Amino acid sequence: MRNGRTFACVAGIIGAIAAASGRAGANDSNAALAAGGLVPAQSTTIAMLSEDLTISTKLVRVVYRFKNLSSDPQRVLVKFPFAKSAIDGDAEFETPWKDPARIFNFHVKVDGAAVEPRYETRAITADGADITEELARRGLSPFDPPPAGVKPWSVHYAAFWTQDYAPGAVVVVEHDYRPIAGHAYDPPPAAERRTRYCISPPAERALARAELGSQPVAQANVKYVLVSAKTWAGPIGDFWLSIDEEIAGDMVALCGFPLRAVSPTRLSLNMKNFTPTRDLDILFLEPLAPRIGGGARVERE
User: Fold this and answer.
1) Tell me, what's the pLDDT at 237?
2) Which of 87, 140, 184, 227 counts the highest number of beta carbons within 10 A?
3) Residue 277: pLDDT over 50
4) SS3 sequence, 195-263?
5) Whole-angstrom Cα distance, residue 31 to residue 8?
């Protein structure tokens, strides 16, 4: 949280985007890479038994256990959608943004064996229209400045790979990546802290004391796409969320998740049969020396 430059936030969660079943020996799957890119599809045969998600400003790590509920082998094209990134034409970031592998340092393991994912990049407008092909016809990429007559867009990144599931098998999928967290040396405005992050009254009072004492408070924001987990069969059986602070005394704020401090720098929760209805939008606040109090704090609804 020491970098004061504010830039687009990117982070993420996994989702199935296509599934096909067949008898033993069948290796092909239904077309999932359509002309417009990756096409989401609901899986009715692969269940997410558990998800263990850990988020900090430096690393996001997830461990899943999936099970094939059917008596047939399944081949699924799995997608990891990173949160969208607005491209503002900043030349310093233009080249790295074009290479998702460099941006996120994304790693995947399946039952302990490394998997090499592929990547796609799409241009999506605020109303959900995919204009990637339209830009290509104009000789433009998602990273170019918006031309006259074309709505502004955000760049959406996704990693994907093909996964096989034997009948009744449980498969462990692990992945981690480096989140690109937005940073600033001032906390967001009070109204935004309350409505977007559900920050608590005690944290507001702590921030007011810091302001009166001319104590700077740095912020970082990490976003994580969670609702795509609804594409699997049924809810997440056992969901764990942990958020790691950099230093004891930092504060974390987000809406909708009843986190509890389990150590001086870790906040956690566990939910059974969990169906996500919102993505994670996490605010990390770091009081710079002298620090505000000590020990882990969670700011929630």
Assistant:
1) 96
2) 87
3) yes
4) HCCCCCHHHHHHHHHHHHCCCCEEEEEEEECCHHHHHCCCCEEEEEEEEECCCCCCEEECCCCCCEEEE
5) 33
Residue located via tokens 């790979």: 161
Cα(267)–Cα(259) distance, rounded to whole angstroms? Answer: 6
Exposure on the CB side of residue 106, measured as CA atoms within 13 A = 27
Alpha carbons 106 and 108: distance in angstroms, whole number:
7
Residue 88 near residue 106, CB atoms below 8 Å: no
Specify whether the backbone of 25 is left (phi greater than 0), alpha (psi in -120 to 50) or beta: left
Alpha carbon separation from 17 to 66, 160, 219, 228 (Å, rounded): 15, 9, 34, 9
Residue 177 near residue 102, CB atoms below 8 Å: no
Of 101, 108, 119, 82, nearest to 8 (Cα)?
82
Q: Are 108 and 115 in contact (CB under 8 A)?
A: yes
| CATH class of domain segment(s) 15-181+227-247+254-272 | mainly beta
Structural domain spans, the chain? 15-181+227-247+254-272
Of 71-75, 76-80, 280-284, 292-296, which gets the smallest average pLDDT? 292-296
The per-residue pLDDT for range 134-149, each reduced to its tens digit, is 999 999 888 888 888 8
pLDDT tens readout for residues 224-274: 888 877 788 889 999 999 999 888 778 889 999 989 999 999 999 999 999
pLDDT digits (tens, 9 = 90+) for 11-45: 232 333 222 222 222 112 222 333 344 445 678 89
Taking the C-alpha atoms of residue 190 and residue 199, their distance in angstroms, rounded to an integer, is 9
